[in-house]
Amino acid sequence: MKKTVISHAAFGCATALLASFVTWLALAPGSMSLLEAHAQTPPAYTAARQAELFKTTMNDVLGRVVTIRRLERDAGTGSGPHRHPGSHTFGYVLEGSYEVKVGDGPLQKLGPDGTFYEPPGALHAVSRNGSSTRPVKYLVIQVSDPTQPQTVPE
Fold first, then answer.
1. 37-61: average pLDDT
2. How many domains does the chain fold into?
3. I need a labelling partner for 109 at 20 to 30 A (CA). Which of 66, 76, 129, 138 fits?
């Protein structure tokens, strides 16, 4: 019981630290642009360009791995439905328009400062750039069980 409480407390501290980092990035000068109108064209499904910004193993939290990535998708592109079986996934839109649907939730149309969350194993049914003319840039922060696959396509 004591180990579980400590693990949850450490996880909460790590989450708060990540939230502070995201807030700091959001307030950086020049990091925001205006929200674009939603494009009605279906997206082309392509891989996003991504840069891993941070990664560490949290040995005191059941060996979870924390990863922060910056992703960019070209106009009109997205990824197919998928799941992250062992990951708590947090998203934060830096620039542009991002559309996301998780599980049975509604389709969210997010602009700069928009956030989303995917619990482990949830269906990420929609993940796409909401603009047909401009790229979208967003952060993905994951707290993952390294014994589980990172991504599983549907």
1. 66
2. 1
3. 66
